[in-house]
């Protein structure tokens, strides 16, 4: 394996765990900032915005599955090998980000914001653990892989607008801290660099 890929593959989880360690001190400034942002967000909620962000939060699966599936279908129909290869790249990047997120979640076991701080009221009570955000890691992996496969502004802008909206929705809904989302974005983006040899 290429040394750069080894650094990404083995260094990325370590970097994320180090990031969490700096956040997890009981009364750290970063934890206080996390709590403050979450409380400020919940105070700004409206029924209309909540409906929009619930919808955006649910789109991550459609993007994560639909984008590579669409590329594969397009590649088969048009007999375009490059498009089929890019489908594999996007799907593999998203799958790797999911695996890394799952692993780190089970090592860290950070409670959800509304469990850790009773002043944080979620729109709904998500299960599992909080760090890092799986919705964010998978949507950023999909957006980054797609943008690297097709580096055109009209691909990059909507891809990252979607990934950013999904990520913001997780904080707005009260189910992830900003640091959970930041770590998810790093994992998702990093996953695409590990698998860049799959890109055509």
TrEMBL record:
Coiled coil: none
Domain of life: Bacteria
Alphabetized UniProt keyword annotations: Membrane, Signal, Transmembrane, Transmembrane helix
Domain Phosphatidic acid phosphatase type 2/haloperoxidase: residue ranges: 87-196
InterPro entries linked to this entry: PAP2/HPO, PAP2/HPO_sf
Residues spanning the signal sequence: 1-25
Transmembrane segments: 88-108
A Pfam family this chain is assigned to: PAP2
Keyword Membrane: yes
This protein's name: Phosphatase PAP2 family protein
